[in-house]
Amino acid sequence: TTHRIIAIEPIVEQYNVTREKTSKFNNVETYNFALSTKSGPVEMYVGKSGKGIQGMGSSSLLKPTRHKQQFPEISFDVKQKINALKIEEFCSTNDVQFVDLLWLDIQGLELSLVEESSDFFKESVNLIHMEVSRVELYDGTALYAEVLNTMAKFGFRALKRRVGRVSGNCLFQNQKYKAIK
User: Fold this and answer.
1) CA distances from 17 to 21, 107, 112, 121, 125 (A)
2) For the segment 1-49, what is each residue's pLDDT rounded down to a tens digit?
3) CA 47, CA 11: separation in Å to the nearest integer?
4) Contact 76, 64 (CB under 8 A)
5) 35: closest CA among 123, 128, 126, 122?
6) CB neighbour list of residue 143: distance below 8 Å, 6 or more residues apart
7) Is 80 helix (H, G, I), strand (E, B) or coil?
8) pTM for this one?
């Protein structure tokens, strides 16, 4: 079976790199927008360090706060106007009924997205690989303990936790689908 892979990247420069690097794979679809709690045009703080796309992985819809202290090599001198979509809007438009693995790395907005679309996540998502933080790198970021507690309330159990002093990642499984192999 061929699996459908959907790659969403809001920053134009990173999107172009993603599209170029995945163009030879028939099962990869690329989209240029941001997942968010609301749909519509927004401004994104664009991270930058060095040449090309370096540092752009730190770009966020949220204003950087302690990010500058933790990662001083990354600046946020530019904003980029982009389009944002709620996840259920994207999925209904693109015939996505079930997501086996969602890699959610949206720089501080992860938990807000899950909370805003909790019914969708509870019913339609098996695994979520989510970036988490112990430090408020962006304004309003939910911190690690709150993420764990809220995900548990929504029926997701942390299978893997790789979180350092500042940030890291967790893999959560929807307990509704834990028998899926």
Assistant:
1) 6, 19, 27, 29, 27
2) 679 999 999 999 899 999 999 999 999 999 999 999 999 999 999 988 8
3) 10
4) yes
5) 128
6) 132, 133, 134, 135, 136
7) strand
8) 0.91
